[in-house]
Amino acid sequence: MSIPLSWYLILAAALFAIGLFGVLSRKNAIAILLGVELMLNAVNINLVAFWRYMDPAKMTGQVFAIIVFAVAAAEVAVGLALIISVYRRRKTVVADEIDLMKW
Amino acid sequence: MTADQIIFILCAVVIIVSALMVVTTRKLIHAALWLVAALFGVAILYAVLQASFLAVVQVVVYIGAIAILFIFAVMLTRREMLDKGAQTRSNWWLPALLGLLILTGLVFLIIGQPAFSRTASEIPADVDTLRNLGTALVSPDAFVLPFEVASVLLLAALVGAVYIASDKKK
User: Fold this and answer.
1) How many separate domains does chain B show?
2) Domain range for residue A12?
3) Boundaries of domain holding B51
4) B120 located within any domain
5) Could you read off the pLDDT of B82-139 as tens digits, one per residue?
6) Across the interface, do A17 and B102 touch by the CB < 8 Å criterion?
7) For residue B102, which of A49, A10, A43 has the smallest C-alpha distance?
8) Binary contact (A26, B65; C-beta < 8 A)
9) What is the Cα–Cα distance from B31 to B28, expressed in whole angstroms?
Protein backbone atom coordinates (compact mmCIF):
# COMPACT_ATOMS: atom_id res chain seq x y z
CA MET A 1 0.00 0.00 0.00
CA SER A 2 2.40 2.64 -1.19
CA ILE A 3 -0.20 5.00 -2.62
CA PRO A 4 -0.46 8.35 -0.83
CA LEU A 5 -3.94 9.27 0.40
CA SER A 6 -3.84 12.48 -1.64
CA TRP A 7 -3.94 10.51 -4.92
CA TYR A 8 -7.35 9.12 -4.05
CA LEU A 9 -8.60 12.51 -2.95
CA ILE A 10 -7.41 14.20 -6.16
CA LEU A 11 -9.00 11.47 -8.30
CA ALA A 12 -12.28 11.88 -6.39
CA ALA A 13 -12.09 15.66 -6.82
CA ALA A 14 -11.62 15.26 -10.57
CA LEU A 15 -14.52 12.81 -10.81
CA PHE A 16 -16.72 15.17 -8.80
CA ALA A 17 -15.83 18.13 -11.04
CA ILE A 18 -16.61 16.11 -14.18
CA GLY A 19 -19.94 15.01 -12.71
CA LEU A 20 -20.77 18.59 -11.76
CA PHE A 21 -20.00 19.71 -15.31
CA GLY A 22 -22.32 17.00 -16.63
CA VAL A 23 -25.15 17.96 -14.29
CA LEU A 24 -24.94 21.65 -15.15
CA SER A 25 -24.29 21.45 -18.89
CA ARG A 26 -26.51 18.60 -20.16
CA LYS A 27 -30.00 19.21 -21.51
CA ASN A 28 -31.35 15.66 -21.26
CA ALA A 29 -32.74 14.81 -17.82
CA ILE A 30 -31.32 11.27 -17.95
CA ALA A 31 -27.85 12.66 -18.71
CA ILE A 32 -28.20 14.92 -15.66
CA LEU A 33 -28.85 11.85 -13.51
CA LEU A 34 -25.74 10.20 -15.02
CA GLY A 35 -23.72 13.19 -13.79
CA VAL A 36 -25.23 12.81 -10.31
CA GLU A 37 -24.09 9.17 -10.28
CA LEU A 38 -20.52 10.23 -11.06
CA MET A 39 -20.59 12.71 -8.18
CA LEU A 40 -21.91 10.08 -5.76
CA ASN A 41 -19.12 7.72 -6.81
CA ALA A 42 -16.54 10.42 -6.14
CA VAL A 43 -17.91 10.80 -2.62
CA ASN A 44 -17.77 7.04 -2.10
CA ILE A 45 -14.11 6.88 -3.17
CA ASN A 46 -13.34 9.54 -0.56
CA LEU A 47 -15.24 7.69 2.18
CA VAL A 48 -13.54 4.35 1.51
CA ALA A 49 -10.09 5.93 1.17
CA PHE A 50 -10.46 7.70 4.52
CA TRP A 51 -11.67 4.46 6.11
CA ARG A 52 -8.60 2.59 4.86
CA TYR A 53 -6.04 5.28 5.73
CA MET A 54 -7.36 6.46 9.09
CA ASP A 55 -8.70 3.54 11.13
CA PRO A 56 -9.48 0.27 9.30
CA ALA A 57 -10.61 -1.42 12.52
CA LYS A 58 -13.63 0.91 12.78
CA MET A 59 -16.11 0.37 9.98
CA THR A 60 -17.68 3.85 9.94
CA GLY A 61 -16.43 4.81 6.49
CA GLN A 62 -17.61 1.60 4.81
CA VAL A 63 -21.03 1.75 6.51
CA PHE A 64 -21.41 5.34 5.32
CA ALA A 65 -20.52 4.21 1.79
CA ILE A 66 -23.15 1.46 1.96
CA ILE A 67 -25.78 4.01 3.02
CA VAL A 68 -24.73 6.16 0.05
CA PHE A 69 -25.22 3.11 -2.21
CA ALA A 70 -28.75 2.62 -0.88
CA VAL A 71 -29.64 6.30 -1.27
CA ALA A 72 -28.20 6.34 -4.81
CA ALA A 73 -30.28 3.31 -5.78
CA ALA A 74 -33.44 4.91 -4.36
CA GLU A 75 -32.65 8.22 -6.08
CA VAL A 76 -32.12 6.61 -9.49
CA ALA A 77 -35.26 4.46 -9.23
CA VAL A 78 -37.52 7.39 -8.36
CA GLY A 79 -35.74 9.83 -10.69
CA LEU A 80 -36.00 7.60 -13.73
CA ALA A 81 -39.63 6.79 -12.90
CA LEU A 82 -40.35 10.52 -12.85
CA ILE A 83 -38.59 11.04 -16.17
CA ILE A 84 -40.52 8.17 -17.79
CA SER A 85 -43.78 9.54 -16.40
CA VAL A 86 -43.00 13.03 -17.73
CA TYR A 87 -42.03 11.58 -21.10
CA ARG A 88 -45.33 9.73 -21.31
CA ARG A 89 -47.37 12.87 -20.67
CA ARG A 90 -45.36 15.56 -22.45
CA LYS A 91 -43.18 13.65 -24.95
CA THR A 92 -39.99 15.34 -23.84
CA VAL A 93 -36.96 14.55 -21.69
CA VAL A 94 -35.32 17.97 -22.02
CA ALA A 95 -35.04 19.53 -18.57
CA ASP A 96 -35.71 23.05 -19.91
CA GLU A 97 -39.01 22.06 -21.49
CA ILE A 98 -40.41 20.57 -18.29
CA ASP A 99 -41.65 23.95 -17.09
CA LEU A 100 -45.24 23.35 -15.98
CA MET A 101 -44.45 24.55 -12.45
CA LYS A 102 -42.23 27.41 -13.58
CA TRP A 103 -43.82 30.72 -12.82
CA MET B 1 6.96 3.02 -8.81
CA THR B 2 5.37 -0.03 -7.26
CA ALA B 3 2.70 -2.35 -8.66
CA ASP B 4 0.04 -0.70 -6.48
CA GLN B 5 0.76 2.69 -7.94
CA ILE B 6 0.70 1.41 -11.52
CA ILE B 7 -2.70 -0.25 -10.93
CA PHE B 8 -3.99 2.94 -9.36
CA ILE B 9 -2.84 5.12 -12.25
CA LEU B 10 -4.34 2.74 -14.84
CA CYS B 11 -7.65 2.76 -12.93
CA ALA B 12 -7.57 6.53 -12.60
CA VAL B 13 -7.03 6.99 -16.33
CA VAL B 14 -9.90 4.60 -17.12
CA ILE B 15 -12.21 6.38 -14.65
CA ILE B 16 -11.41 9.90 -15.81
CA VAL B 17 -11.60 9.11 -19.53
CA SER B 18 -14.90 7.22 -19.15
CA ALA B 19 -16.34 9.97 -16.95
CA LEU B 20 -15.42 12.57 -19.56
CA MET B 21 -17.09 10.45 -22.23
CA VAL B 22 -20.21 10.15 -20.03
CA VAL B 23 -20.63 13.91 -19.88
CA THR B 24 -19.64 14.73 -23.46
CA THR B 25 -20.76 11.93 -25.78
CA ARG B 26 -23.76 12.68 -27.98
CA LYS B 27 -25.60 9.37 -27.87
CA LEU B 28 -27.14 8.74 -24.48
CA ILE B 29 -26.90 4.96 -24.71
CA HIS B 30 -23.15 5.32 -25.21
CA ALA B 31 -23.00 7.62 -22.19
CA ALA B 32 -24.71 4.92 -20.10
CA LEU B 33 -22.20 2.31 -21.32
CA TRP B 34 -19.28 4.62 -20.53
CA LEU B 35 -20.77 4.99 -17.05
CA VAL B 36 -20.45 1.21 -16.68
CA ALA B 37 -16.72 1.50 -17.52
CA ALA B 38 -16.24 4.27 -14.95
CA LEU B 39 -18.07 2.24 -12.29
CA PHE B 40 -15.85 -0.77 -13.03
CA GLY B 41 -12.79 1.38 -12.45
CA VAL B 42 -14.17 2.52 -9.11
CA ALA B 43 -14.84 -1.13 -8.18
CA ILE B 44 -11.17 -1.95 -8.85
CA LEU B 45 -10.17 0.99 -6.65
CA TYR B 46 -12.27 -0.48 -3.82
CA ALA B 47 -10.44 -3.77 -4.29
CA VAL B 48 -7.09 -1.94 -4.14
CA LEU B 49 -8.31 -0.30 -0.91
CA GLN B 50 -9.09 -3.79 0.49
CA ALA B 51 -12.80 -3.00 0.79
CA SER B 52 -13.79 -6.34 -0.76
CA PHE B 53 -17.49 -6.17 0.12
CA LEU B 54 -17.87 -2.73 -1.40
CA ALA B 55 -16.09 -3.84 -4.58
CA VAL B 56 -18.64 -6.64 -5.03
CA VAL B 57 -21.57 -4.37 -4.11
CA GLN B 58 -20.32 -1.80 -6.62
CA VAL B 59 -20.48 -4.39 -9.41
CA VAL B 60 -23.78 -5.93 -8.31
CA VAL B 61 -25.74 -2.81 -7.35
CA TYR B 62 -24.24 -0.05 -9.48
CA ILE B 63 -23.44 -1.95 -12.67
CA GLY B 64 -26.02 -4.70 -12.29
CA ALA B 65 -28.95 -2.54 -11.25
CA ILE B 66 -28.41 1.20 -11.63
CA ALA B 67 -26.61 1.18 -15.00
CA ILE B 68 -29.15 -1.29 -16.42
CA LEU B 69 -31.96 0.96 -15.14
CA PHE B 70 -30.33 3.86 -16.99
CA ILE B 71 -30.11 1.84 -20.20
CA PHE B 72 -33.80 0.91 -19.91
CA ALA B 73 -34.77 4.54 -19.32
CA VAL B 74 -32.75 5.63 -22.36
CA MET B 75 -34.46 3.00 -24.48
CA LEU B 76 -37.91 4.05 -23.28
CA THR B 77 -37.37 7.74 -24.03
CA ARG B 78 -35.07 7.47 -26.98
CA ARG B 79 -36.88 8.84 -29.99
CA GLU B 80 -36.66 12.33 -28.54
CA MET B 81 -33.51 14.35 -29.29
CA LEU B 82 -31.55 11.39 -30.62
CA ASP B 83 -29.78 13.25 -33.36
CA LYS B 84 -31.30 16.68 -33.40
CA GLY B 85 -29.68 19.75 -31.97
CA ALA B 86 -26.98 20.05 -29.35
CA GLN B 87 -26.89 17.79 -26.32
CA THR B 88 -25.38 20.46 -24.10
CA ARG B 89 -26.53 23.95 -23.25
CA SER B 90 -25.28 26.83 -25.34
CA ASN B 91 -23.44 28.28 -22.33
CA TRP B 92 -21.64 25.01 -21.52
CA TRP B 93 -18.37 26.86 -20.90
CA LEU B 94 -19.79 28.28 -17.67
CA PRO B 95 -20.20 24.85 -15.99
CA ALA B 96 -16.81 23.85 -17.42
CA LEU B 97 -15.24 26.91 -15.83
CA LEU B 98 -16.99 26.17 -12.52
CA GLY B 99 -15.81 22.54 -12.57
CA LEU B 100 -12.23 23.55 -13.31
CA LEU B 101 -12.37 26.16 -10.55
CA ILE B 102 -13.63 23.62 -8.01
CA LEU B 103 -11.06 21.06 -9.17
CA THR B 104 -8.11 23.46 -8.87
CA GLY B 105 -9.33 24.67 -5.49
CA LEU B 106 -9.69 21.12 -4.13
CA VAL B 107 -6.32 19.99 -5.54
CA PHE B 108 -4.68 23.07 -4.04
CA LEU B 109 -6.23 22.28 -0.64
CA ILE B 110 -5.34 18.56 -0.78
CA ILE B 111 -1.71 19.17 -1.76
CA GLY B 112 -1.33 21.84 0.91
CA GLN B 113 -2.37 19.39 3.64
CA PRO B 114 0.69 17.40 4.81
CA ALA B 115 -1.50 14.84 6.63
CA PHE B 116 -2.82 13.64 3.25
CA SER B 117 0.57 12.59 1.87
CA ARG B 118 0.80 9.59 4.21
CA THR B 119 0.53 6.02 3.02
CA ALA B 120 -1.68 3.37 4.61
CA SER B 121 -0.40 1.07 7.31
CA GLU B 122 -1.06 -2.64 6.90
CA ILE B 123 -4.33 -3.91 8.35
CA PRO B 124 -3.41 -5.98 11.43
CA ALA B 125 -3.68 -9.73 10.85
CA ASP B 126 -6.20 -10.22 13.67
CA VAL B 127 -8.65 -7.66 12.22
CA ASP B 128 -11.20 -9.25 9.89
CA THR B 129 -12.75 -6.23 8.16
CA LEU B 130 -15.50 -8.23 6.47
CA ARG B 131 -16.64 -9.73 9.79
CA ASN B 132 -16.36 -6.31 11.44
CA LEU B 133 -18.52 -4.77 8.74
CA GLY B 134 -21.19 -7.44 9.15
CA THR B 135 -21.37 -7.08 12.91
CA ALA B 136 -21.26 -3.28 12.72
CA LEU B 137 -24.31 -3.25 10.44
CA VAL B 138 -26.49 -5.25 12.83
CA SER B 139 -25.15 -4.53 16.29
CA PRO B 140 -27.33 -2.19 18.40
CA ASP B 141 -24.38 -0.14 19.67
CA ALA B 142 -23.11 0.48 16.13
CA PHE B 143 -25.10 1.10 12.95
CA VAL B 144 -28.30 -0.92 13.15
CA LEU B 145 -30.47 2.22 13.11
CA PRO B 146 -29.05 3.69 9.85
CA PHE B 147 -29.23 0.20 8.35
CA GLU B 148 -32.94 -0.13 9.14
CA VAL B 149 -33.64 3.42 7.97
CA ALA B 150 -31.94 2.58 4.67
CA SER B 151 -34.15 -0.48 4.26
CA VAL B 152 -37.29 1.60 4.86
CA LEU B 153 -35.99 4.19 2.38
CA LEU B 154 -35.47 1.50 -0.26
CA LEU B 155 -38.98 0.13 0.31
CA ALA B 156 -40.48 3.62 0.01
CA ALA B 157 -38.47 4.26 -3.18
CA LEU B 158 -39.62 0.93 -4.62
CA VAL B 159 -43.29 1.66 -3.98
CA GLY B 160 -42.93 5.25 -5.16
CA ALA B 161 -41.14 4.30 -8.38
CA VAL B 162 -43.76 1.67 -9.25
CA TYR B 163 -46.58 4.13 -8.54
CA ILE B 164 -45.06 7.02 -10.50
CA ALA B 165 -44.02 4.97 -13.53
CA SER B 166 -47.24 2.95 -13.83
CA ASP B 167 -49.57 3.83 -16.67
CA LYS B 168 -52.78 5.04 -15.03
CA LYS B 169 -54.84 5.20 -18.17
CA LYS B 170 -55.16 1.42 -18.32
Assistant:
1) 2
2) 5-97
3) 1-81
4) no
5) 556 667 778 888 989 999 999 999 999 998 888 888 887 777 777 788 888 888 888 8
6) yes
7) A10
8) no
9) 5
Question: Is B146 inside a domain boundary?
Answer: yes
For residue B71, give the nearest of B108, B38, B34 by alpha carbon: B34
> Residue A34: inside a domain, yes or no?
yes
Structural domain contains residue B147: yes
Same domain as B146, residue B73: no
Residue burial A61-86, b: 16+ Cβ < 10 Å; e: rest: bbbbbbbbbbebbbbbbbbbbbbbbb
> Which residues from chain A sit within 8 angstroms of residue B42, using beta carbons?
41, 44-45
Which of B28, B33, B49, B123 has the highest number of chain A CBs within 10 A, making it the mutation to test binding with A?
A: B49
Q: Which ipTM value was assigned to this complex?
A: 0.90
Q: What's the average pLDDT block by block, 10 residues per block, for chain A (103 residues)?
A: 86 94 90 93 93 86 92 92 88 81 76
- Give yes or no for B106 touching A (CB within 8 A): yes
Residue B15 has its nearest CB partner, among A11, A52, A70, at: A11
Contacts of B157 in chain A (CB under 8 A): 73-75, 77-78
Would A56 be classed as within a structural domain?
yes
Helix axes B129-138, B144-165, angle to 10 degrees: 70
- Whether A102 maps to a domain, the answer reads no
| Predicted model pTM | 0.90
CATH number, residue A19: 1.10.287.3510
